[in-house]
Automatic annotation (TrEMBL):
Ranges where the 2Fe-2S ferredoxin-type domain occurs: 1-103
NCBIfam families tied to this protein: PRK07570.1
Protein name: Succinate dehydrogenase subunit B
GO BP terms: aerobic respiration; respiratory electron transport chain
InterPro entries: 2Fe-2S_ferredoxin-like_sf, 2Fe-2S_ferredoxin-type, 2Fe2S_fd_BS, 4Fe4S_Fe-S-bd, 4Fe4S_Fe_S_CS, Beta-grasp_dom_sf, Helical_ferredxn, SDH/FRD_Iron-Sulfur
Gene Ontology molecular-function annotations: 2 iron, 2 sulfur cluster binding; electron transfer activity; metal ion binding
Regions that span the bilayer: none
Stretches assigned to the 4Fe-4S ferredoxin-type domain: 150-180
Family in the record: Belongs to the succinate dehydrogenase/fumarate reductase iron-sulfur protein family.
Coiled coil: none
Keyword rRNA processing: no
Protein transport recorded as keyword: no
Alphabetized UniProt keyword annotations: Iron, Iron-sulfur, Metal-binding
Species for this entry: Micromonospora pattaloongensis
Length: 255
């Protein structure tokens, strides 16, 4: 396959950035999207040009690093697929492919396609710890968990923190990510002692980091490579409301 790539090039956070066109030839349909970019970068290096900076790590769809917008869609055209798992057979010979970084206020561009997703770490850190007895491993059946809860918690825990939900959201909201993190602990018995403080603190960290509010646009779930359902945000809202009421009740009593 021969392709035209139009790639966002930006020297650093202060640079305005621009789209630059590259021709790539002899692309195998069996290459992954990142392997195709590797081939382009090897050529650029040989020609004495600067390679395109992009994030990647596992290349197995589990780390969430390979963040890029392909033809206007975070992670590209294939549903439930990270960029590293996307193959060139998804495209056709002669195609022009636009490749851009995540665009969101809370994810500033570091260089080219690499953005700073440290704001996600701040939300996670605000969630803190769970109270659990330390020492030897507890007996596996000591804390029964209903199967439906275990399955739903596991589904939420599949979030890989890639940020595609933020990139897809017209408000740049990270509510799907935050809701996934709150849900996977909030459904488990081990997550109950800090359940209220966790949701209040994580939502506060979300807002402080500059993410927008959720207005139910519904763009996040279709972009999510792990299919985290929109209902997860509804669960966060219910938890948030219950915790806020309890906290304001405590304040009123203390006052
Ligand atoms: S909710 Fe989905 S899109 Fe958002 S960070 Fe998690 S895996 Fe990525
Ligand atoms: S490189 Fe790890 S999910 Fe794509």
């Amino acid at each position: 396959m021969n392709l035209t790539l139009r790639i966002w090039r930006q020297q650093g956070p202060q640079d305005k950035g621009r789209m630059v066109s590259y021709q790539v030839t002899d692309v195998s349909p069996d290459m992954s999207f990142l392997e195709m970019l590797d081939v382009l970068n090897e050529r650029l290096i040989l020609e004495g040009e600067e390679p395109v900076a992009f994030d990647h790590d596992c290349r197995e769809g589990i780390c969430g690093a390979c963040s890029m917008v392909i033809n206007g869609t975070p992670h590209g055209p294939q549903k439930m697929t990270t960029t590293c798992q996307l193959h060139m057979r998804t495209f056709s010979d002669g195609d022009t492919i636009d490749i851009e970084p995540w665009r969101a206020k809370a994810f500033p561009v570091i260089k080219d396609l690499v953005v700073n997703r440290g704001a996600f770490d701040k939300i996670i850190q605000a969630g803190g710890y769970i109270s659990a007895p330390t020492g030897s491993a507890p007996e596996a059946h000591a804390t029964p968990v209903p199967k439906a809860d275990a399955d739903a918690a596991f589904e939420a825990a599949e979030c890989i923190g890639c940020g595609a939900c933020v990139a897809a959201c017209p408000n740049g909201s990270a509510m799907l990510f935050t809701a996934a993190k709150i849900t996977h602990l909030g459904l488990m018995p081990q997550g109950q002692p800090e359940r209220d403080s966790r949701v209040l603190d994580m939502v506060a960290a979300h807002d402080e980091a500059g993410f927008g509010g959720c207005t139910n646009a519904g763009e996040c779930t279709p972009a999510c490579p792990k299919g985290i359902p929109l209902a997860t945000i509804g669960r966060l809202n219910r938890d948030f409301l219950a915790a806020s009421r309890k906290r304001s009740g405590e304040t009123a009593t203390a006052g």
